[in-house]
Amino acid sequence: MDQLLDNFSLDLFVKQTILFLVLIFLLVKFAWKPILNALNDREEGIKDALDSAEKAKLEMENLQADNNKLLKEARAEREAMLKEARDLKNKMIEDAKGEAQAEAAKLVAQAQASIESEKKAAIADLKSQVANLSIDIAEKVVQGELSNKGKQEKLVESLLGDATLN
Amino acid sequence: MKVLSKAITSISLILFISLSAFATGDKKESQSTHGDPVNTPEEINEYIQHHVRDSHDFHMFSYFSDGEEHHVGFPLPVILWGENGLSAFMSSAFHHDDNGKEVVEKGDSKFVKLHGKIYELNAGATEVNFDEHHHPVNASTPFDLSITKSVFGILLIGLLMLLWFGGLAKQYKTKKVPTGFGRVLEPLVLYVRDEIAKPNIGPKYRKFTGYLMTVFFFIWILNLMGLTPFGFNVTGQLAVTAALALITLVVYLFSSNGHFWSHQLWMPGVPYFLRPLLAIIELAGTLIIKPFSLMVRLFANITAGHIVVMSLIAIGITMQEQMTAVGSTLLSFVLSLFITLIEVLVAFLQAYIFTMLSALFIGMAVEEPEHH
């Protein structure tokens, strides 16, 4: 213990304390503060960069999802439009067909009606012609028959015969 | 680390060669002449004691030639605040005298150096007189502001740290990642911050990191310097470790909060009659035991390391009679190499432990109460 105390030099203690305090002050001011700040800044920079990279990745994913959605929507829309067009076309064809059919039917009906009426007219004409012809014939026949007395009597007799049969 | 230990190995090799060279040189002459610096176990012991202490000049080694002692080293400035004010001269003025024989006159003051300490002779005295315990009776001790070997080491390491870490700080101004030597320093800075400051102090670590960094690198570099043959033993000076421990004490006392003191003085969750007793124990721990343990641990580890390394090197001299010169040299080489490698580890470990414990004590003082 005596030797320990003998080893202890108060002068050196004072010198060491002062020098060391000055050293701490100088190092903190010129070394540790800028070094630690720079290290902190760097670490924060790295952290920020990593964070933003992560964010960018997420954004990319979102964007891609959006793109896919848009693409899907566009495809669906196209599909829908195509379907509509097809439907429209079909409907138009159907409509046209129906209309044509109706028109045709109408035409046919008209034709039939006109044929009917023509037929009727023709028949009526025929009838009147036949009637005239038969009257003419009958006139001629009657003229011919009535020119002969015997024959007139015969006819009357046959006609009377027929009448009794009825 | 590998490169470092390689450097240390080569340095210890140089140290060993220089010492053993002078051991064999001694052997030839010691048979005939006396007065060699280090030869007998007592002289070796004294040499080691001398090395472990602070000194006023930078002495690396001595050698004998032509029957004269030559010292290799350089003098350091001596600055004294004595009875007649400030006086300054180079330590070479004492001519390596350590027994109070060489009197240096500066103005009205006369100084002598005795066992590493400088005394100012009382007015009128021309030489130092001793009492029976070999203490000077007619001299006073001036306040010694000298750049001693330890102060020289502190200044050197301080400048080195300012240069290195200031350079690193400057690098960050222009680039994000340092280049060159800064690339070596950056992981060390990060290590202290992430492994010592953050886990032990908690969220308030930032305020104390500067102090912890300074302490860590100061102790570590000085510990490593102590392993070189330049003879630094700064962290093995009780005064230096005491100053470091005292600063840690001041730091954690001044940053302590109410929560810390309430636990110190009136420990909750303990029977009431035990609380005053616990308060005494806790206070003794905080104010005396913690800084004392910091101070003694570093001092004792580093001093012990120096003594062991030098004792093992001394085997090359002391065991020559039993083992022949080659055998003792080989043994001392192997053992001192081994211990020097361990000392490299100890150098780091002690810096780490001192810083870690400082951080732990600060962490205890600033800890916020947990919310339940």
Can you give a write-up of this model?
The complex is a heterodimer of chains A (166) and B (372). With 166 residues, chain A is mainly α. Chain A is 96% helix and 0% strand. Chain A has three helices and no strands. The N and C termini of chain A lie far apart (182 Å). The mean pLDDT of chain A is 86. With 372 residues, chain B is of the alpha+beta class. Chain B is built from nine helices and nine strands. Chain B is globular, with a radius of gyration of 25 Å.
SS elements, strand count of chain B: 9
Shape of chain A: rod-shaped
Q: Which structural category fits the helices and strands of chain B?
A: alpha+beta
Oligomer: heterodimer
Overall average pLDDT of chain A: 86
Main sheet: strands, sense, barrel of chain B: 4 strands, antiparallel
Overall strand count of chain A: 0
Provide key terms for this protein.
heterodimer; A: 166 residues; mainly alpha; rod-shaped; B: 372 residues; alpha+beta; 4-stranded antiparallel β-sheet; 3-stranded antiparallel β-sheet
Which helices and strands appear, and what pairs or packs with what?
The complex is a heterodimer of chains A (166) and B (372).
Chain A: H1 2-7, H2 10-146, H3 149-165
Chain B: H1 2-30, H2 41-52, E1 57-65, E2 68-75, E3 77-82, E4 85-90, E5 104-106, E6 109-114, E7 117-121, E8 139-140, E9 143-144, H3 149-174, H4 182-201, H5 206-227, H6 238-254, H7 258-265, H8 275-318, H9 320-366
Antiparallel strand pairs in B: 1-2, 3-4, 3-9, 5-6, 6-7, 7-8
Helix pairs in contact in B: 1-8, 1-9, 2-8, 3-5, 4-5, 4-9, 5-9, 6-8, 6-9, 8-9
What's the short story on this structure?
The complex is a heterodimer of chains A (166) and B (372). With 166 residues, chain A is mostly helical. Helix content of chain A is 96%, strand content 0%.
